[in-house]
Amino acid sequence: MKKTLAMMILLITTLSIAWGANSTVAGKCMTCHKEKTSGMYKQWLGSDHALHNVTCYDCHAADRSEPDAFEHEGAWIATLVTPNDCGKCHPQETKEVSESYHATAAEILDSKDAYLAHVAGGNPIAVVGCETCHGSIVKIDPNSPNKLSKLSWPNSGIGRINPDGSKGSCTACHTRHSFDKAQARQPEACSKCHLGPDHPQKEIYEESKHGNTYYTNIDKMNLDSDKWVVGEDYHIAPTCATCHMSATPNQKFTHDVGQRISWTLRPPISSRKDNWEQKKENMQDVCAACHENQFVENFYYQYDAVVRLYNEKFAKPATEIMTMLRKNNRFERQAAFSNKIEWVYWELWHHEGRRTRHGAAMAGPDYAWWHGMYDVAQNFYFDFLPEAQHYADPEVDAYIEKMLNENPMHNWINRDTKELKEEIRSGEMQKVYEDLFQEDK
Amino acid sequence: MKISSRYLQFIRGVSQNIIGKLGVALATSTFFMFLLMELAWFTGLVTNAYIGLISYLALPMLFIVGLILIPIGWKHQQKVTGKTSQELLNQQFDEDGVKGGFAGSGIFQTVGILTLVNVLFMVLASTQTLHFMDEAKFCGTACHTVMNPEWQTYQVSSHANVNCVECHVGEGAKALLDSKLNGLWQMVSLSFNLYERPIPTPVHQLRPARETCEKCHWPAKHYGEELIKHVRFTNDEFTQPLYTTLAMKINAEMDSEQVGVHWHIADGVQLRYGHTDPDRNKISWVEVNYPDGNSRRYTNTRIGNEKPVLAEREMDCVDCHNRATHIYLEPEDIVDKMLENGDIAKDLPYIRREALDALRTSSPDKERGLAQVARHLPAFYRNNYPQIYYNRLSELETIGEALSVEYDRYIHPEMNINWGVYPSHLGHKNDSGCFRCHNEFMQSDAGLTVAYDCTVCHDIFAYDSKSAFQFMTEVDTTDLESAIHHYLKETNF
Lengths: 441, 493
What we know:
Oligomer: heterodimer
Distance between the termini of chain A: 60 Å
Helix content of chain B: 40-55%
Strand content of chain B: 5-15%
Strand content of chain A: under 5%
Helix content of chain A: 40-55%
Number of strands of chain A: 4
Radius of gyration of chain A: 27 Å
Largest sheet of chain A: 2 strands, antiparallel
Order of helices and strands of chain B: HHHHHHHHHHHEEEEEEHHHHHEEH
Largest interface: A-B, 19 and 17 residues
Largest sheet of chain B: 5 strands, antiparallel
Shape of chain B: elongated
Structural class of chain B: alpha+beta
């Protein structure tokens, strides 16, 4: 007991001496930066960090052996604050972020997106257009005043690969220097990246009842509260954070954003994620804070069917046709994306197909259909198929011929309108799609 | 013969044609007018600079023109009549006058006496003219539109009792001549509307500051530390004071414990710099020559050698004290001073924000601007705090009037002078002033940076703090800015 007490006294003394030293250094930073970068200073002054005496030097202190350390006004510091630095006080959050899909966002150099940006665009647009969201691979430049290459800094991409080996940038969501949780809980924090033709989560949220209620009632969201449990601390609407990260009466909050997602909606053909049953259950637990169980079950019943419809009716045939054309060596040019059909196929799944699936997942009907499946269908029948037939590949032509004549989802194209309308009215047509409502076995 | 009749006879004699008559009339009338005006100035009947222009510039000039016309008239008469001077003399004057005597002829004596009077008069007139033109009132009000802004700020400055010419002209005949020639050009540019609005600064032909300023402020006079106490008020509903107290290190010594900012002009120190812009704000290099013969050169790595240097200059007083006299205050300076003095009541909600808004009124003409300034506060309180408006209207109007007086002093649409046109280089607001050289980019070849630590030039006893000597007290750990307190307490003492 005595020993423990002695240890505690020693620990407290050490900490206070360390605080005293830190405080003097930080005081010097603050004295100057209060004037030189007054906006940054005031953001910090209004933050919870200031409230808890977390000052400049607590985050920016660096060991002189670190590659990005430099001496500034007598102190060794680093501009870059990495998840490892934040993890000194927030270990759980750092661990969850590191294990999340977000942390891998900068590992895109081999992706089709990055390839396209580099060949069809060029390095400057890859730096500005891709790496700003995905994160740069931070490079050291010994001649730069803050030792960071101009090509990789500034950057607060969510998967930034840092010189200390850590991945990510907490400021991607917790905008510096206020690091405000209320700010990170609002949809705008996510919509810095999640918007546009290929993943319009922001637009879909705005269309949905969820977004609708949120924007009408922001002042009732209790966004500043330390504890933020849906149904307990707020109830009027969910934000992105509510469903994907925040606490429910039964679940702790998590910084691993993939823990409640059951489908992969990103690739050309969607599939179930590892451990998807648990992940779906996690999300349904969030829904249950505001919705009755049957409501939630039925929502998933409808949503899952849209994903399967997209997969079966368009994604799989289009992908198969692309595979045949490549296998039969039909492309005029060899480089990826050097043939028109590759761009047509790309937009079919990467833009329109994702809009369909995201629209269904987040209750945005207009995105699911008019900005989504409608565009997929138009592209498929009147751009993609004609473009594929233009190669006159017997195998591909036979495949298309068979599909359009025999596949009950596609053969409408060769039939009589009156007859089709009759089938819609009678419910015959709907029966074609019945299987899509059933879970794959 | 009586003097008066002798004079009358003489002037009749020389005014034999229209030119002569005009000359005599001009010289005589301006002579008496001048004496009359002088009497009026002396008794204080007139004080206006425009009347001064007439009495000290127009009258002496017309007098000289008159005198010159008389011999021209005489010569002209000779030419027209074909007579010699002797014949004309005989014709115009009686024998007594023309006849020679002990001190020359009577005419000759009259001319001699009159010339003496003329010379005496011209000495008097030109002395008075120069004296008049040396007065601040002449400089400040003669060219009203152009000089009015400078005149307004001069009158409320610490140099209000020092004449303009003391700093702007200098001593000796050459300086006088230069200034008069310069003045001629100013007359031309004023007449033909050629002058720039606002007048560009720095004034490049200003006489060397060290010659003028150091007559009163010699370097050895700066010593110790000078305490500067600023108070700023918050822009919120409550108008709380925030104090900044600085102990300025202003010694002119270097290499000692007592080093202070005036080492820049210490004995034997020469500091030269190159700038890339006419305003001398973008300084690309600095060279310090120390008394021991050593020197050090710093180059701004941002401006570097990329931009050509527009001019080089030896640093002197006005590089920092660029607004020693014509100080153009900012709206914040004015409103904070009025709040501090109690000229504006602090219990009016949002009063600082609104008083600033009132002063920042933008208007193409002065009259409308003044009206807007005066109306701003009553309008704001009527719309937002009707109870205050009804109970304290006359107080709001008084504040509005006081604000218009300040607006009138500093805002001059006819010269394109608005807030911030003539910033002061004292201090380092918005990276100006000291920070033109004292910044992280100004480095020597050896990688040394010009010092820009906060405590190099001043100790800090309060920085937007709730009391004027906050950092002399114990550190309050509940204060969010206690780290600053901690650091400055250690540094100051």
